[in-house]
Amino acid sequence: MKRVVVIGIGIFGFNLVKELYESGIEVIAIDKNKEVVQEIADFATKAIVSDGLDRNIIESLSLRENDVVVVSFGEDLAASTLITLHLKQLRIRNIIVKAPNTEYKQVLESVGATEVIIPEKEMANKVAKSIVSPNILDYIPLAEDYIIGEIAAPSNFQGKTLAEVHLRSRYNINVIAIRDTLTDTVRMVPPNYVIKDSEILIVIGKSKDIDRIQ
């Protein structure tokens, strides 16, 4: 089973560990603050009091190539860079590092981070999108302005089949799945599927085209 190691338990790291653990993932939390480790212990498979820069601790975990390590040191670029180098030398394939800005992102990618996230920027983008396009509940950006987005089924869609609302011909978007808000289940559906008021449409298309659906 793939394991996830989170090094640095601030607000971001704490919530990440908790979410992973509650999703059934084996997750190891590491932080040098004893009180923080005690707080996260009930929400992690294993919680360790240690400086994440201690290479011996990292090596003692016997990490496998397919394990994921998340480095969440905030604005400490030196610490994030050093631990990323250690992980790269240990042949860890999936190294996700939290950074405060794009300048840090470039440095961390150059030393081996496979993914660098800027939570504040990404959250700001989502909030801005929710203001500009309130009908888009959530989205994943793709290339060339395309997104995969969730939209609540408009009232004039309800009771009609997917074929009858002509999303592809009218809006240049495709429905790839339906999410039922009552059961929180996602499933693929055929063109003759009748849209219900409790459902969310998961669509793919250009953001400007999805915005046209009111």
Structural account:
The protein is of the alpha/beta class and 214 residues long. It has two domains: 3-119, 3-Layer(aba) Sandwich (Rossmann fold); 133-210, Regulator of K+ conductance, C-terminal domain (Alpha-Beta Plaits, 2-Layer Sandwich), CATH 3.30.70. The chain contains nine helices and eleven strands. It has a six-stranded parallel β-sheet, with helices on both faces. The longest helix is centred in the middle third of the chain and has 14 residues, at 119-132. The relative contact order is 0.10.
Order of helices and strands: EHEHEHEHEHEHEEHHEEEH
- How many individual domains? 2
CATH architecture of the largest domain: 3-Layer(aba) Sandwich
- Per the CATH scheme, the topology name of the largest domain is Rossmann fold
Strands of the widest sheet, in order across it, are 3-2-1-4-5-6
- In CATH, the homologous superfamily of the largest domain goes by the name NAD(P)-binding Rossmann-like Domain
What distinguishing features does this structure have?
214 residues, alpha/beta, Rossmann fold, Alpha-Beta Plaits, 2 domains, six-stranded parallel sheet, five-stranded antiparallel sheet, elongated
